[in-house]
Design brief:
This is Nucleoside hydrolase. This protein is α/β, with parallel strands linked by helices. The chain is 39% helix and 17% strand. It has 13 helices and 13 strands. Helix 1 runs parallel beside helix 12, helix 10 packs antiparallel against helix 11 and helix 10 runs parallel beside helix 13. The radius of gyration is 18 Å and the shape is globular. It starts with a strand and ends in a 6-residue tail after the last helix.
């Protein structure tokens, strides 16, 4: 069983990743940090609360994250890809926030201490909220966390918000660089692999027709909206890449991906803002072992698709 603390910004792929985590029989979701990213912080929290209620898991604490990056710049949202509320055409009820208890950022440290040396942090949104405990509590804030699984970056491939930068790292490069430098045992899932994590519409149709998941009525309309947006972004694409779901799939299937170990830094300013930097020369510079990150470079697509189907067809006992 994996005790998982998730950091999300509740766009379509974040939401599908949260659904996957709630469905997975080997994942014990111990908290969700919900913040700005594809949508506003308030919309993100509302979506998270909605999904937890559908799953019958209102016992899972929701932690309110940041409204914008550490730089103080205005956050940019992407309704054309994720919909006005982050779930494509789905409009969750707007009153969830007023009815639920939402914790502040200190709850992260409480959870880390509660699951000392038995906790994985999965960050599939902006890095701001992951960086905040490092600012508030110092570089040892996460010393008792087993590993970090992060969706972000682009190495040797184009970015998705600029020619060189991926959205999660671009939105707050100061936070991303801080997390990558101070946290230990990091697994990074960049666009190199997540762009290939394609789930086709016929797979979604099969799941929607056969699943008993509490998210049965959300999966297809959210995916269809997302896929339509991707068809405009990448003409000819045969499905939609579920960037964030891949991270959890590899967590629970460790041999699904292959990695290279490199020290990763994030460019913070100028035209290359948000660019992921690692030394891919045949003989790279030697960095201290504790600074090296695991960068996913390959994965087994067929096994990923099968895992995705199996998880959404599984019957998980609700707590």
């Amino acid at each position: 069983m994996y005790n998982v603390l998730m950091f999300v910004d509740s766009g379509v792929d974040d939401s599908l990743a949260l659904m996957y985590a709630l469905q997975h029989p080997e994942i014990n979701l111990v908290g969700v940090v919900s913040a700005y990213g594809n949508i506003t912080k308030e919309q993100s929290i509302n979506n998270t609360a909605y999904l937890l209620k559908l799953a019958g898991r209102e016992d899972i604490p929701i932690i309110a994250g940041a409204s914008g990056p550490l730089s103080g710049e205005a956050a940019v949202f992407y309704p054309e890809i994720h919909g006005e509320e982050g779930l494509g055409p789905i409009q969750p009820p707007e009153n969830f926030i007023s009815k639920i208890k939402v914790y502040d950022i200190n709850k992260i440290i409480e959870i880390v201490n509660e699951y000392k040396n038995d906790l994985v942090i999965v960050g599939v949104g902006r890095q701001t909220d992951l960086a905040l405990p490092l600012i508030l509590y110092g570089k040892d804030a996460y010393k008792d966390v087993n590993a970090f699984y992060l969706m972000g970056g682009a190495f040797l491939v184009p970015g998705n918000v600029t020619p060189e930068a991926e959205a999660n790292f671009y939105a707050d490069p100061i936070a991303a660089d801080s997390v990558l430098e101070k946290a230990k045992n990091i697994y990074i899932f960049p666009l190199n692999v997540t762009n290939k994590a394609i789930i086709r519409p016929e797979t979604i149709d099969f799941i929607a027709d056969n699943t008993q998941s509490p998210f049965k009525d959300l999966i297809k309309p959210a995916y269809d909206y997302y896929y339509e947006a991707y068809q405009k972004l990448v003409p000819g694409i045969k499905g939609a890449p579920l960037h964030d779901v891949l991270v959890l799939s590899v967590l629970t299937n460790p041999d699904l991906a292959k990695y290279v170990k490199r020290r990763v830094r994030i460019e913070q300013f100028g035209k290359a803002k948000g660019k992921s930097i690692a030394d891919f020369r045949p003989v790279p510079e030697v960095d201290p072992p504790e600074t090296l990150d695991n960068i996913a470079m390959e994965f087994d697509l067929e096994r990923f698709v099968i895992d995705f189907i199996e998880v959404f067809l599984a019957q998980k006992n609700q707590k």
